[in-house]
Amino acid sequence: MPCLYIGEKNISFNFHSKEFIKIMTLIPIILVLYVLVSICLTYMVHRKPRRPVNQKPDWGKVTDTIIPAADNGFLEVWRIEPDVPSKGIVVLAHGWSRNRDRMVNRAKMFGQWGYTAVIHSARDHGNSSKCRLMNGIRFGEDIEAVLKWVNEPVILYGHSAGAAGAVIAASRHPNLVKLMYLEGSYAETKPALLSLYKSFNKYFGLIFGPGIVFWMDSVLYRNKLGPLSPKSLAPNINVPVLLIHGEKDMTFPVKFAQSLAQSFPVNNARMWIAPGAGHSDSSQQPGYKSEVRKFLNENLENA
Questions:
Q1: Contact 79, 63 (CB under 8 A)
Q2: What is this structure's pTM?
Q3: What SS3 state is found at 300?
Q4: 1-34 pLDDT, tens per residue?
Q5: Which PANTHER family does the record associate with it (predicted)?
Q6: Which CATH class is domain 61-188+226-301?
């Protein structure tokens, strides 16, 4: 009978026993089940329930319109002109599961400073067109559609998936972006997804996260998750960037944003960490408005 020597103990295995044969029979079944479940979950995570916000612009002149998007889709867009002559345009992009209403308070802040705000709902969000497998890359495509529609250099503000999409759009259209704000962003997509799933449920993330990310990258994204990660694109973005991040963000920890900040050209990026904030409430913390305004003044208004 074969033996395994561990320290001072001899452990015997009977490779012909019923128990061993049963275990060896179960292993391929478990592997097949894991593959099938991870494939199903890969589809399901793209169908994460939407949590739209209901908050309409209450300042300036509001135009509610529809613009064309990729793959024959369309986006609902608000363009809000300030009550004074406009200093420029700010395009704001929401994160996963939200809609354009999510960015209204941030947009209003810029409106009070004399800027035109343009806010859209990404495909498969709000009342924009459906998209069966919406993802971060398509968030970028939607921001590209808005940039082309505006057709002049803008300040680009993205939150979470909208921040990742903003990096993609800015890398493809450097002539249409003059300054960026990235709130709740991340550096590399694969680690970010694993962190996201663990924040939902630790065991779900540990067990199924790697399988979901594998199918997502190899099948759905055709191995583009790495090349289109914010960290990979950042070195080619030559505009001032302010990264805004919650100190206690458990979805994408602060170290993700710090890694991204270091990836931009030297002296282009700055970080502001919102004390006590989580993933989505940095804009509600003391100091947020003054930091955003200070960065704007230093790089555009007083430059």
A1: yes
A2: 0.87
A3: helix
A4: 555 454 555 555 565 676 766 766 777 777 777 7
A5: ALPHA/BETA HYDROLASE DOMAIN-CONTAINING PROTEIN, PROTEIN ABHD13
A6: alpha beta
